[in-house]
Amino acid sequence: MSSTPIERSHHNGNGNLKNSDSLRTVAEIEEFDFSKVLDKPRALNIERQRSCDELSIALSPRQSFIKADNFSRLGEHFDNAFSPMYKSGLNTPKSLLLDPHSILPEAWEALRRSLVYFRGEPVGTIAALDNSEENLNYDQVFVRDFVPSALAFLMQGEPDIVKNFLLKTLRLQSWEKKIDRFHLAEGVMPASFKVFHDPVRNRETLIADFGESAIGRVAPVDSGFWWIILLRAYTKSTGDSSLADRPECQKGMRLILSLCLSEGFDTFPTLLCADGCCMIDRRMGVYGYPIEIQALFFMALRCALQLLKPDAEGKEFIERIVKRLHALSYHMRSHFWLDLKQLNDIYRFKTEEYSHTAVNKFNVIPDSLPDWIFDFMPHHGGYFIGNVSPARMDFRWFCLGNCIAILSCLATPEQSVAIMDLIESRWEELVGEMPVKVCYPALENHEWRIITGCDPKNTRWSYHNGGSWPVMLWFLSAAAIKTGRPQIAKRALQIAESRLLKDNWPEYYDGTLGRYIGKQARKCQTWSIAGYLVARMMLDDPSHLGIIALEEDRQLKEPLLKRSNSWTL
C-alpha cells in the first residue's frame, strides 16, 4: 500500500539554535535545503530565527508565482519548525511589530474568566459571558468555539485543559443520541455540553447537545472534524503522542471517519450536508456541499492520517483515507475553484451536454451567474466558491473554508497565493473596518426571503449573512503567515485592536464595512477573544503556525493543476 507516512511527534529536549543576522532574499530562500529539516529531530534542531526572518519577506504575487514550489517548501518548514512546548524568545522582525501596549493582558484575563470546570478540572471555555442577555445556549462549551481557545492555551504552554476537553467530549461521543424516535450514529460528536450541578446529590454531571436542542435540530457535522484537528494540534504542540495512541482515541477517530467514508449513492467525493450543520448553523443556503465542511473534511482526513496507528483496524482506514484524499483534492481544485479565466469559461458554457466528454459537467446555466461576481473577481486572484452541485453554483466567498483550504493544503500553492491576492484586492469588501466577513456578499430582498426563510437574525450584512466576525481573524492571520504575507495579518490585527476591547469583545459586527456592533451580538464572546489571541501570538512567534498548519503532501499534487488559472495572461 502506498500512503502518506504516519507522522509521530516526540519531544526532544536537545537541539541547536542558530541566529540569522539579516533578512533573507527570495533567492536565498530558494537555496535553503528544506529536506535537511526533515532529517532532524522535530523538537529544537531548527533555525528558528531563519523561520521568522524568511516569513517577514513581503513576497509580491509575481514572485510567489514564479517560485511556487518554494512556497510549498516553506509550508513544510513551518510544520517542522514548531518546538513542542518551547517558546523561541525571538522577536518578530521590527517591520511587523505591533503596539507593545496591546490589549493582550486584558484578552488573557477575559479568556481565563471564561473557563468551565468539571469536578475541579478545566474542561473548556463558555461561549460568552454576557450577563446582560438571556443565556440561551451561550452558557455552554461548544466544540467549534473552543478550538481558538485551545490553540491559545497550547501556544501559551498550558495543554492540560485541551487534554481534558478532548477526553470529555470523547466520552460524550459514546452516549446514546436520540432525536424524537430516531437514533443518531455512534460516531457523532456533540455540538456543545454544559456542566450541571445537582444540589441534592452535590454532584456534577455533563449534559450534551447533539443537535436535538439546536434551532434547526441539525447534528453538527464539523464537530468531529474539529476534534480530530485539535487532537493533532495537541500532539504537535506537546510532542506527546500517548493521548492519540490511547485505544479510546483511536476508536473515536475511526467512528468519526466511518460516518464520512461510508459508501452510498454519492457520485462525488465531497460530503452532502444539511443547512445549519457547521458554523453557519441557521438556514443560509449552504445545504449540499458547502466549502466549509469540505475543507474541514480534507484537513481532518490528513490529520487522522498522521494520528491513526497502522494496526489491524487502523490500516483499513488509512487506505480509505488516502484514496479519498486523492479524489477530494482533485474534485475541489477542479470544480470549486474560481478565477477570472474559469469565470469566463462558465460565462461561455454550453448546456445540456451529455456523455463523459462534457465540459459543463454540472449543467450550470450561464444566466444563473450573479451580476456582482463580474466586478468582484480581480485580474489576479481567485477562491473556492461556496457550493457546487447539479445545476447549482453558489459563488459566495466564505472566509473559513478558503482559509482552511490554505492551512490544510487543499489549495495548491498557486491557489493559496491567489486567495490572498483576492483578499488584498477586495480588502474593503472582505475586511473593511472589522475583520473578517464570514461570507460575501449578503443575501438581500427576495433572495433573502427565499433562501433564509425571512430569518430576522440573518438580515443583510448581519450575523451569518455578511456579518463581520472577529474570530475569523485567526483564520486569516494563519493563512497570511503560511503564504508569506504576514503584513496582511498585521494590518487586520491593527484594525481589530483598535476596537475589540473598547466594544467589549462582540460576537460579530454589522454593516457592509463591519462598522456597527451586531444588533443581537453577545458581548464578551469567548472565541472573539481567543481568535484575537491566537492571531497575535502567531504573528509574534510564527513558529506557532506549525500547531495548526499542515505541509503539502507531494502525493496529492496534480500535474494538470500545477499552474493556477489566475496567472494566465
From TrEMBL:
Q: What is its EC number?
A: 3.2.1.26
Name the GO terms of the biological process aspect.
Answer: sucrose catabolic process
Region spans: Disordered: 1-20
Alphabetized UniProt keyword annotations: Carbohydrate metabolism, Glycosidase, Hydrolase
Drop me one GO molecular function for this one: sucrose alpha-glucosidase activity
Q: Which transformation does this protein catalyse, written as a reaction?
A: Hydrolysis of terminal non-reducing beta-D-fructofuranoside residues in beta-D-fructofuranosides
Enzyme class (EC, first level):
hydrolase
Lineage: superkingdom: Eukaryota
Keyword Hydrolase attached: yes
**PANTHER family recorded:** ALKALINE_NEUTRAL INVERTASE B-RELATED, PTHR31916
UniProt record similarity statement: Belongs to the glycosyl hydrolase 100 family.
Q: What does this protein do?
A: Invertase that cleaves sucrose into glucose and fructose.
Spell out the protein name for this chain: Alkaline/neutral invertase
Organism for this UniProt entry:
Trifolium subterraneum (Subterranean clover)
